[in-house]
Amino acid sequence: METTEVGTQEHKGTSRDFDHREGRLNKYTLFCALLASTNSILLGYDIGVMSGAALLIKENLKITSIQEEILVGTLNVFSLVGSLASGKTSDYIGRRYTTVLAATTFLIGALLMGLAPSFLFLLVGRVIAGIGVGYALVIAPVYAAELSPSMSRGFLTSLPEVFITFGILLGYVLNYALSGLPEHINWRIMLGLAAIPAIIIGLGVIAMPESPRWLAMQGRVDEAKEVLIKISNTVGEAESRLEEITKAASVLVSSPTASPESAHERNWCGEGVWKELLLRPSRPIRRMLIAAIGINFFMQASGNDAVIYYSPEVFKAAGIHSKKQLFGVNVIMGIAKTSFVLLSALYLDRFGRRPLLLLGSAGMVLSLAGLGLGSMFLGRSDSKPTWAIVLCILAVCADVSFFSIGLGPITWVYSSEIFPMRLRAQGSSLAISVNRLVSGVVSMTFLTISKKITFGGMFLVLAGIMVVGTMFFYVFLPETKGKSLEEIGALFEDKHTKNDNRAREMAQMGVA
Fold it and tell me: Against a cut of 0.70, is the pTM above it?
């Protein structure tokens, strides 16, 4: 793809959809985005429930700390497989059926984990569940972004993070409620219950339409129009959006010399995208990759997943030994996280991506620094003073809350909206694969490194990483609020290139 191919999208949003910019959110669009995002509850539930179940599994199956790290991190590592495959899969079979595939794969993994008679059997279940999670993490925000009008895309595309957070809270609550059961039953029920939402999601997809942008790339313009009429407030809005989408499809799917009609006569299945992304990216595409991979890297390098997975271990080291108390602290943390992610989702389209991202990242730096200092004090104190324990609890709650304001929801929004239509699914899958790889590495090394440098030292390292992350976001991530998906590519172009493209377009229209 040449630079000009991205730049030609800039003018296409200026005369578009007069109604849906200021109109109310279409209820059917909200329903579809909610249903697709429900897939993300599977990852959140696993993160939340495994934080408590890992302690119970360790006692019941007599596994070591290294085996515990492998067990926890396996799901994240193998979600890398699902996330890498999801882009090509969703380009080939569509966004809708990829959602079904994600739920079905996770269902099989959840059943295996719930019925596991041994550590090895449990590990196999987490491998399969991880692949399903990888599929879900990519397809949910991509589908929501492709259905959403520009003025509410931030809210709808952040719904996957809302459901991840709700799943975490649900896992915490069930940890607390089921911890009193016999040790050979409690963790199996906790893990096996994840099969229920997977079944509901798989069946619920029947009510979801296919993405109109995917349909347009397949040349199925009439079907795309039918979907757009359902997800728009007026027929005029639907027609305006269809015109914008079909123009983008003709540019992005066809070769530079092909006619728009020829683009609609073929079924495009994602051919050549990996080469275009990795072997010969244009400068705008390279900048998009840096932005998308960077935000996904720092999302997990911040240690958020590890803090949630291992917070019971952290508080156990701080002097809290009762399982009920440990799981109770988790519930408090889950409530804080859920409250702030809802707040962020509701205001994301009003305040924009950058302000909330920078606020959240700076808040995480302070929270992790406070958690690190509090943990170091507790590690050197035999008396375990109450004020230090309270400081650590407040710092953990602040850390996950600031994460939920910024990095949590905005990573999914940004990853799914900055790539042009032709590259969106596979570009997002590449970026989110980095997310899962880093999450797996951090989760599988957190306890080992913490034993070497203490929990306090580990949290101070994470604070330093987030200082770098905050600077990266400030430099490399432009604001995308209010832009259509077809306009966003122009944000990553050189200024002179944008001016040249606009002059050429105006000349073609007879203006110049």
Answer: yes
